[in-house]
Amino acid sequence: GLPPALPTLPLELTVLYNSLLFTMGSSDSAIKGETEEIRQGLLRVLEACGACGQDLSTEELWQKVLQEVTAETLQAPLHQLGALQAAWWLAAGRLGSATGLFRLLSNAEDPGKAYCNDGENELLSLLKAWRVPAEEASLPLVQSAEDLKEILCTAGAFLKGLQELEAGNFPTALSLLQEAAGGFCSKRVLAQIYTCLGCCAQRMGKPQTALQHLKRALQVDFQCLPALSHVAAVYHELGETDAELQALTLLCEALGKIPPAATSSSPYFLIRTEFLVHTPILASLLRRRHLSEVKYLLAQRCLQDGRVADAVEHYLDFLALLQEGLQEQVPLDAGSALPRIPEVFLEVASALEQAGRHQDAITVCEEVISRTTDLIPRMLQVEERLEQPDCLSPGTGLAGGLLSQKKESLCCLAWRAAGYLHQGWAWATLGESKEAITQFSRECLEDAVTRSMCLSMPESLLPEVEVLQKIRLLSLIGRGAQFLELGRHKEALLDFQHGLQISPDDPAAASYLVQALWKLNRKQEAAAHWQKFSQSPPGEDGQQKGQGRPIPLYLVSCLKQAMFPHSESLARNIQDYLGTTNQDISS
């Protein structure tokens, strides 16, 4: 409550500096927002000099103080307090305000001097050029301004590098992050910087350089597990499956041993670099994967690579994590690698089928069917008016809510249909043709899919409809193949014809159709169809027609099972028939 006096202001400002250091150093949350204490200190400086600035913003207040206060004894305390203000602004992401403050501090020392060279960041140039005032022996600081300058330089380079990385200016980002890596920080922050360097190099199309940076991050701090996640992603991009699986396995082991809250930062300084760098892109790059996610990724990659036994083991480990507690084990944020749980179960069923565990696969599919059946409305109606311009746009208001509900219903429909499909193929593999036909003929083939086909679908729901169409095609092929096994050739022919109506270029349906005609002794038709299909370009089995979208992983094994197994023998029979027919005509 005492009025300010020039002789005591250096002591007052030094006490303010030290007290704020303790406040900021006690918790990084204290750095967020504006500091009223610094503002009050500046107002007392102006008051002591016979001026006022109550109506000024903090930036304007600093400008007035540094331009009008010339007392030599106040320069060092003001510069120290200015560095603290800059730390506050950096932590709040206000790099422009920090740049303006150091421009004022530099001009106060050497008016008119240019501190930014061509191509160099102005904030970093000003920080490097800032001459830290000498400390008064009678006014000790709990953290020297020189140390604070080094931390500001590192944080400034780190923040600017992240800004450029987010903006897609990768060469500039790489240069700034490399400068930050050579700065003053803890091992934990250094590992984070190397991780960001690795991500930047990966986006520049330099995977080997990315691996070098990411491995350096792990050498600096072995607890920087996001770096290991990115290593796996780079190896996946390179197609090096063995290395990718090894990285994911190491990540699993590390997640099982290290508590999530473990840190490796140095406690020496009250203000540290990690207190000043909080940005969404950094949080995204350093997102810590949950053990369940990594287990799922391992299972998924193994299944995609044909390592069926390993895939089954990892999928079962993942399901065990689910049983321990769904909310605790499955991350729900947007960055999660996990698909919807029914899709995971269907992938498990696919892996079990390929491993020869057909009864287990049938049981898993029954779980999916029972859980999704009650979620499918008896009548699925998607109205075309939702797409009209005078209505609310999708994703907002009533229209968006209705589309979201219909999309969820279509997803449930697809999951249940896929469950029946897998059961059909499992029974077929076990030699139970009648049971297989029953499953192929369930609601996935008839009523449910027919309803979805006849609707007027908004464009946003087409991917779900395409999946349903693919399931229907595979079901028709599966049922038709079983009819052939039982000698019911006419019924088989109808299924293959319906399948070609869904996908006219599908090679499996076309080959089965030719075989059905052949078995019905309609050899001339069979030969004509065979000639037509053999001249057509091959279909894209792994892609959704027209859009190049990969089909769901849980359908890949069904695609393989639906492939026609007698192509060579059928082709020989047709060619022999055509040869004989041609000889008869010529004779």
TrEMBL record:
| Keywords attached to this entry | TPR repeat
Q: Where are the TPR repeats?
A: 473-506
Which GO CC terms are listed, alphabetically?
Fanconi anaemia nuclear complex
Domain of life assignment: Eukaryota
* GO BP: interstrand cross-link repair
Q: Which InterPro entries match?
A: FANCG, TPR-like_helical_dom_sf, TPR_rpt
What is the name of this protein? FANCG protein
- Record lineage: Eukaryota, Metazoa, Chordata, Craniata, Vertebrata
Q: Which gene encodes it?
A: Fancg
